[in-house]
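Lecture notes, unit on protein representations.

Consider one protein chain, 365 amino acids long.
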Amino acid sequence: MSDLFQSIGRKLLFILNPEDAHGLSINALKTGLIPTCAPIHDPALRVTVAGLDFPNPLGMAAGYDKNAEIPDSLLKLGFGFAEVGTLTPLAQAGNPKPRIFRLVEDEAVINRLGFNNGGHDAAFQRLNERLGRGGIVGVNIGANKDSPDRFADYVAGIRKFYDLASYFTVNISSPNTPGLRDLQARDSLRELLGKVLDTRDELAARSGTRRPVFLKIAPDLPDASLDDIAAEIALHPLDGLIISNTTLARAGLKNRANASQAGGLSGRPIFERSTIVLAKMRQRIGGNLPIIGVGGVDSATTAIAKIRAGADLVQLYTSMIYRGPGLPGQIVKDLSATLRRDGITNIAELRDRDVNDWASRTTAD
């Protein structure tokens, strides 16, 4: 399917503007037009993270299935888990169009979508309809652009989806909602984590089920900010980190026509930057707190590199735009083959092998 997509499918989709192409791909998955991947049941790929048993470490990142329309279709492509959202309490249109730009030569995308989504109620109905189907589906929560109380928006997300989410991601790292990244500052982060995790613990005591909560951070943070985040999360019962969201950096891009567009850059160019931040945070938080590595994953090789740099799980999104819906199944197949070739009994054995090397590197601004 990957070769067919490269020769035909991508050319057809790339005739459309990026946002229309995205909508078409959602509809194709929703209607079953895209072939599914035969499940790969390899014990060597199974990973237990935050009390959840993942069939393999590859997930679909938030941002693709913004409205929780197709999580089960994504799982059938070979992903070990899928993350929906970002979801805000109220529906919002996001930023003015055009707001997605392809950088084809770089296999990258710049977006300034701004948490466009249909709000909590619409997503709740869809997720409620899939109850009992199994599979790990995370819910990425955010705040409305014009919210008078952004902390309350995150708490509302925990309350709304507590019985439906496999885990939560608290997204404070998008560059496309003014002021959102300010929540990464230590005082704001302390208040946010306190309120979100107190709510989670309240609902866990009431329901008897404890939902993991992950924090998603940006790749553009200086070392001092990483120190502050590590120090603050050590004081809270957080279940893990997701590193990272898109970057505002533009170094080394081949496509100069769209490089100056405002928004967050994702795809191949972000791999090094996001992996360095991942390794630096692994050094700071130690070995116990799980990390999901995101940014530039487009193959088994890059997935393993993230794991060796300190990730327990990895996610992708942009690479599927360029490589097609067969990519996740191919990566999982290649991961399995690589472990067999190298005599690795479980992929978790690879974690942290290159942490110090990655953390010692620097990125161009």
